[in-house]
Specification:
Number of strands: 10
Shape: globular
Helix content: 25-40%
Radius of gyration: 19 Å
Protein backbone atom coordinates (compact mmCIF):
# COMPACT_ATOMS: atom_id res chain seq x y z
CA UNK A 1 0.00 0.00 0.00
CA UNK A 2 1.44 3.35 -0.99
CA UNK A 3 2.21 6.11 1.44
CA UNK A 4 -0.23 8.41 -0.35
CA UNK A 5 -3.05 5.99 0.46
CA UNK A 6 -2.14 5.43 4.09
CA UNK A 7 0.41 7.86 5.42
CA UNK A 8 1.95 6.99 8.75
CA UNK A 9 -0.58 6.39 11.48
CA UNK A 10 -1.33 9.80 12.81
CA UNK A 11 -4.42 10.71 14.67
CA UNK A 12 -5.90 13.64 16.50
CA UNK A 13 -6.56 13.03 20.15
CA UNK A 14 -9.92 14.52 21.07
CA UNK A 15 -9.77 17.27 23.64
CA UNK A 16 -12.48 15.42 25.55
CA UNK A 17 -10.28 12.35 25.93
CA UNK A 18 -7.82 12.04 28.84
CA UNK A 19 -4.20 12.68 28.02
CA UNK A 20 -3.20 9.56 29.94
CA UNK A 21 -2.62 6.47 27.81
CA UNK A 22 -1.44 2.91 28.07
CA UNK A 23 1.95 1.84 26.74
CA UNK A 24 2.68 -1.53 25.13
CA UNK A 25 6.21 -0.99 23.91
CA UNK A 26 7.31 -4.61 23.67
CA UNK A 27 4.35 -5.67 21.56
CA UNK A 28 4.74 -2.67 19.27
CA UNK A 29 8.47 -3.13 18.72
CA UNK A 30 8.45 -6.89 18.16
CA UNK A 31 8.92 -7.66 14.42
CA UNK A 32 5.94 -9.34 12.77
CA UNK A 33 5.01 -10.17 9.19
CA UNK A 34 1.52 -9.33 8.07
CA UNK A 35 -0.36 -9.74 4.83
CA UNK A 36 -1.25 -6.37 3.25
CA UNK A 37 -4.89 -5.44 3.81
CA UNK A 38 -7.20 -3.46 1.49
CA UNK A 39 -7.56 0.27 2.00
CA UNK A 40 -11.09 -0.17 3.37
CA UNK A 41 -9.60 -1.54 6.57
CA UNK A 42 -7.56 1.62 7.15
CA UNK A 43 -10.46 4.09 7.31
CA UNK A 44 -9.16 5.80 10.45
CA UNK A 45 -6.58 7.91 8.58
CA UNK A 46 -7.63 11.43 7.62
CA UNK A 47 -5.44 13.35 5.17
CA UNK A 48 -6.19 17.06 4.78
CA UNK A 49 -4.35 18.86 1.92
CA UNK A 50 -3.27 22.31 3.06
CA UNK A 51 -1.06 23.47 0.19
CA UNK A 52 -0.26 22.15 -3.29
CA UNK A 53 2.09 23.98 -5.64
CA UNK A 54 4.65 22.85 -8.24
CA UNK A 55 7.43 23.02 -5.65
CA UNK A 56 5.86 21.79 -2.42
CA UNK A 57 2.82 20.03 -1.02
CA UNK A 58 1.76 20.20 2.61
CA UNK A 59 -0.78 17.91 4.25
CA UNK A 60 -2.15 17.54 7.75
CA UNK A 61 -2.37 13.83 8.53
CA UNK A 62 -4.51 12.56 11.39
CA UNK A 63 -5.21 9.03 12.58
CA UNK A 64 -7.05 7.58 15.55
CA UNK A 65 -4.31 4.99 16.06
CA UNK A 66 -6.73 2.36 17.30
CA UNK A 67 -4.52 -0.56 16.24
CA UNK A 68 -1.60 -0.91 18.64
CA UNK A 69 0.15 -3.63 16.61
CA UNK A 70 2.20 -3.16 13.46
CA UNK A 71 0.30 -2.00 10.41
CA UNK A 72 0.29 -3.68 7.04
CA UNK A 73 3.41 -3.01 4.99
CA UNK A 74 3.42 0.41 3.38
CA UNK A 75 5.66 1.91 0.72
CA UNK A 76 6.35 5.59 0.09
CA UNK A 77 5.77 6.66 -3.51
CA UNK A 78 7.77 9.88 -2.99
CA UNK A 79 10.25 11.16 -0.41
CA UNK A 80 8.32 12.73 2.48
CA UNK A 81 9.44 14.85 5.41
CA UNK A 82 7.08 14.10 8.29
CA UNK A 83 6.89 16.34 11.36
CA UNK A 84 4.95 14.76 14.26
CA UNK A 85 3.25 17.42 16.36
CA UNK A 86 0.77 15.45 18.48
CA UNK A 87 0.85 12.00 20.03
CA UNK A 88 3.38 9.30 19.26
CA UNK A 89 3.85 6.25 17.03
CA UNK A 90 6.64 3.85 16.05
CA UNK A 91 7.91 3.55 12.48
CA UNK A 92 9.51 0.17 11.70
CA UNK A 93 12.00 0.15 8.82
CA UNK A 94 13.74 -3.19 8.42
CA UNK A 95 15.25 -4.04 11.81
CA UNK A 96 15.24 -0.40 12.92
CA UNK A 97 12.39 1.13 14.91
CA UNK A 98 12.01 4.89 15.45
CA UNK A 99 9.70 6.45 18.03
CA UNK A 100 8.10 9.39 16.25
CA UNK A 101 7.35 12.41 18.44
CA UNK A 102 7.47 16.18 18.25
CA UNK A 103 11.23 16.61 18.73
CA UNK A 104 12.17 15.23 15.31
CA UNK A 105 11.49 14.99 11.60
CA UNK A 106 11.13 11.56 10.00
CA UNK A 107 12.20 10.74 6.45
CA UNK A 108 10.07 8.43 4.34
CA UNK A 109 12.19 7.66 1.28
CA UNK A 110 10.55 6.80 -2.01
CA UNK A 111 10.41 3.04 -2.43
CA UNK A 112 11.21 2.18 1.21
CA UNK A 113 8.83 -0.33 2.80
CA UNK A 114 7.89 0.16 6.45
CA UNK A 115 5.30 -0.56 9.14
CA UNK A 116 3.70 1.68 11.76
CA UNK A 117 2.46 0.83 15.25
CA UNK A 118 0.78 2.78 18.04
CA UNK A 119 1.99 1.58 21.46
CA UNK A 120 0.42 4.62 23.15
CA UNK A 121 -3.33 5.11 22.94
CA UNK A 122 -4.77 8.38 21.68
CA UNK A 123 -3.48 8.55 18.13
CA UNK A 124 -1.19 11.14 16.64
CA UNK A 125 -0.90 13.85 14.03
CA UNK A 126 1.82 15.04 11.69
CA UNK A 127 2.53 17.71 9.13
CA UNK A 128 3.64 16.00 5.92
CA UNK A 129 5.77 17.79 3.29
CA UNK A 130 6.84 16.69 -0.18
CA UNK A 131 9.29 19.04 -1.87
CA UNK A 132 10.21 19.07 -5.55
CA UNK A 133 13.16 16.68 -5.91
CA UNK A 134 15.42 19.13 -7.72
CA UNK A 135 14.83 21.71 -5.01
CA UNK A 136 15.40 19.16 -2.27
CA UNK A 137 18.83 18.34 -3.67
CA UNK A 138 19.66 22.02 -3.19
CA UNK A 139 18.18 22.30 0.30
CA UNK A 140 19.56 19.16 1.93
CA UNK A 141 23.19 18.97 3.07
CA UNK A 142 24.94 16.28 1.04
CA UNK A 143 25.95 14.44 4.20
CA UNK A 144 22.29 13.64 4.92
CA UNK A 145 21.63 12.09 1.50
CA UNK A 146 22.49 8.75 -0.01
CA UNK A 147 24.94 9.17 -2.83
CA UNK A 148 23.97 8.00 -6.30
CA UNK A 149 20.51 7.19 -7.54
CA UNK A 150 17.24 8.81 -6.54
CA UNK A 151 16.82 11.27 -3.71
CA UNK A 152 16.92 9.45 -0.34
CA UNK A 153 18.01 10.25 3.20
CA UNK A 154 20.57 8.15 5.06
CA UNK A 155 18.77 8.20 8.41
CA UNK A 156 15.24 7.42 9.57
CA UNK A 157 14.95 10.60 11.61
CA UNK A 158 16.69 13.79 12.62
CA UNK A 159 16.35 15.77 15.83
CA UNK A 160 14.90 19.26 15.42
CA UNK A 161 15.16 22.24 17.74
CA UNK A 162 12.26 24.12 19.39
CA UNK A 163 12.32 26.94 16.83
CA UNK A 164 11.74 24.36 14.10
CA UNK A 165 8.80 23.02 16.10
CA UNK A 166 7.41 26.55 16.18
CA UNK A 167 7.74 26.79 12.39
CA UNK A 168 5.75 23.56 12.04
CA UNK A 169 2.94 25.05 14.14
CA UNK A 170 3.08 28.42 12.38
CA UNK A 171 2.83 26.82 8.94
CA UNK A 172 0.01 24.50 9.93
CA UNK A 173 -2.08 27.12 11.74
CA UNK A 174 -1.58 29.67 8.96
CA UNK A 175 -2.72 27.23 6.28
CA UNK A 176 -5.62 25.82 8.26
CA UNK A 177 -6.90 29.30 9.08
CA UNK A 178 -6.32 30.38 5.46
CA UNK A 179 -4.44 33.52 6.46
CA UNK A 180 -1.19 32.89 4.57
CA UNK A 181 -0.81 34.09 1.00
CA UNK A 182 0.47 31.51 -1.49
CA UNK A 183 3.96 32.98 -1.78
CA UNK A 184 4.22 33.33 1.98
CA UNK A 185 3.11 29.74 2.53
CA UNK A 186 5.63 28.38 0.04
CA UNK A 187 8.41 30.43 1.59
CA UNK A 188 7.48 29.31 5.09
CA UNK A 189 7.42 25.65 4.03
CA UNK A 190 10.88 25.90 2.46
CA UNK A 191 12.19 27.73 5.51
CA UNK A 192 10.91 24.89 7.66
CA UNK A 193 12.68 22.30 5.50
CA UNK A 194 15.90 24.30 5.42
CA UNK A 195 15.97 24.74 9.19
CA UNK A 196 15.04 21.13 9.91
CA UNK A 197 17.90 19.88 7.73
CA UNK A 198 20.46 22.50 8.71
CA UNK A 199 23.67 21.35 10.33
CA UNK A 200 23.67 23.27 13.60
CA UNK A 201 25.77 23.26 16.72
CA UNK A 202 23.90 20.71 18.84
CA UNK A 203 24.72 19.40 22.32
CA UNK A 204 27.27 16.59 22.25
CA UNK A 205 25.57 13.23 21.84
CA UNK A 206 27.06 9.84 22.40
CA UNK A 207 26.52 7.24 19.69
CA UNK A 208 23.72 5.07 21.01
CA UNK A 209 23.89 1.31 21.15
CA UNK A 210 20.71 -0.60 20.36
CA UNK A 211 20.12 -1.16 24.07
CA UNK A 212 20.59 2.50 25.00
CA UNK A 213 18.35 3.70 22.18
CA UNK A 214 15.70 1.19 23.17
CA UNK A 215 15.80 2.42 26.77
CA UNK A 216 15.44 6.04 25.65
CA UNK A 217 12.55 5.11 23.37
CA UNK A 218 10.81 3.41 26.29
CA UNK A 219 11.15 6.62 28.30
CA UNK A 220 9.68 8.66 25.45
CA UNK A 221 6.65 6.40 25.25
CA UNK A 222 6.11 6.58 29.00
CA UNK A 223 6.21 10.40 29.00
CA UNK A 224 3.95 10.61 25.95
CA UNK A 225 1.38 8.40 27.65
CA UNK A 226 0.50 11.20 30.11
CA UNK A 227 1.79 14.66 29.24
CA UNK A 228 0.18 16.40 32.18
CA UNK A 229 1.53 14.04 34.83
CA UNK A 230 4.32 15.33 37.04
CA UNK A 231 6.54 12.31 36.75
CA UNK A 232 9.31 11.55 39.21
CA UNK A 233 12.52 9.83 38.20
CA UNK A 234 11.63 6.88 40.40
CA UNK A 235 8.28 6.45 38.64
CA UNK A 236 9.83 6.58 35.18
CA UNK A 237 12.59 4.18 36.18
CA UNK A 238 9.99 1.77 37.54
CA UNK A 239 8.05 1.92 34.26
CA UNK A 240 11.03 1.17 32.01
CA UNK A 241 13.12 -0.95 34.36
CA UNK A 242 16.44 0.49 35.55
CA UNK A 243 17.94 2.88 38.05
CA UNK A 244 17.06 6.58 38.05
CA UNK A 245 20.73 7.62 37.89
CA UNK A 246 21.54 5.37 34.92
CA UNK A 247 18.36 6.50 33.17
CA UNK A 248 19.18 10.21 33.37
CA UNK A 249 22.75 9.62 32.19
CA UNK A 250 21.74 7.51 29.20
CA UNK A 251 18.93 9.84 28.16
CA UNK A 252 21.18 12.89 28.05
CA UNK A 253 23.94 10.99 26.26
CA UNK A 254 21.57 9.74 23.55
CA UNK A 255 19.24 12.74 23.15
CA UNK A 256 21.65 15.55 23.97
CA UNK A 257 19.23 17.16 26.43
CA UNK A 258 18.34 16.35 30.05
CA UNK A 259 15.25 14.26 30.65
CA UNK A 260 13.38 17.07 32.43
CA UNK A 261 14.00 19.44 29.52
CA UNK A 262 12.78 16.89 27.01
CA UNK A 263 9.52 16.55 28.96
CA UNK A 264 9.16 20.32 29.08
CA UNK A 265 9.63 20.58 25.31
CA UNK A 266 7.09 17.81 24.79
CA UNK A 267 4.49 19.79 26.76
CA UNK A 268 5.35 23.02 24.96
CA UNK A 269 5.04 21.31 21.58
CA UNK A 270 1.54 20.24 22.58
CA UNK A 271 0.82 23.83 23.56
CA UNK A 272 1.79 24.95 20.04
CA UNK A 273 -0.81 22.53 18.72
CA UNK A 274 -3.58 23.58 21.12
CA UNK A 275 -3.19 27.36 21.18
CA UNK A 276 -5.92 27.80 18.57
CA UNK A 277 -8.41 25.87 20.74
CA UNK A 278 -7.92 27.69 24.04
CA UNK A 279 -9.11 31.20 24.80
CA UNK A 280 -7.97 30.81 28.40
CA UNK A 281 -4.21 30.23 28.46
CA UNK A 282 -4.29 29.61 32.21
CA UNK A 283 -6.50 26.60 31.57
CA UNK A 284 -4.17 25.39 28.84
CA UNK A 285 -1.17 25.60 31.15
CA UNK A 286 -3.04 23.68 33.85
CA UNK A 287 -4.20 21.00 31.41
CA UNK A 288 -0.60 20.45 30.32
CA UNK A 289 0.63 20.05 33.88
CA UNK A 290 2.39 23.37 34.44
CA UNK A 291 2.42 24.61 38.02
CA UNK A 292 1.13 28.06 37.02
CA UNK A 293 0.33 30.25 34.04
CA UNK A 294 3.45 32.33 34.71
CA UNK A 295 5.63 29.19 34.64
CA UNK A 296 4.06 28.16 31.33
CA UNK A 297 4.46 31.62 29.76
CA UNK A 298 8.08 31.97 30.90
CA UNK A 299 8.99 28.53 29.55
CA UNK A 300 7.21 29.23 26.26
CA UNK A 301 8.95 32.61 25.87
CA UNK A 302 12.35 31.13 26.69
CA UNK A 303 11.90 28.24 24.25
CA UNK A 304 10.23 29.91 21.27
CA UNK A 305 11.29 33.55 21.62
CA UNK A 306 7.78 34.92 22.08
CA UNK A 307 4.92 34.63 24.54
CA UNK A 308 1.98 32.27 23.95
CA UNK A 309 -0.27 35.24 23.21
CA UNK A 310 2.20 36.69 20.72
CA UNK A 311 2.60 33.37 18.95
CA UNK A 312 -1.16 32.87 18.72
CA UNK A 313 -1.53 36.35 17.28
CA UNK A 314 1.12 35.77 14.61
CA UNK A 315 -0.19 32.33 13.66
CA UNK A 316 -3.95 32.93 13.72
CA UNK A 317 -4.75 36.63 13.37
CA UNK A 318 -2.43 38.19 10.83
Amino acid sequence: MEYDSQIVGLAARSDTQPIAAEVDYDTAMKPKRRTPAPLAEIAEVDVQPLLTTPIVSVRDVLCRGTCRHKSVEECASATHLVFPYRGVYVRHLGHDAAVAEASQVLFFNSGDSYHVSHPVRGGDACLDLVVDETLMWELAPQGLLRQGGALAFRKQRLQIDPRTQALVALLRHSLREDIAELLEAESLALTLVRRALAVRAMPARRAASVGRQRLVDRVKLVLASDLSRRWTLAEIAAEVGGSAVYLTQVFQQVEGVPLYRYQLRLRLARALDLLAQYDDLSRLSADLGFSSHSHFSAAFQRTYGRSPSEFRQSALHR
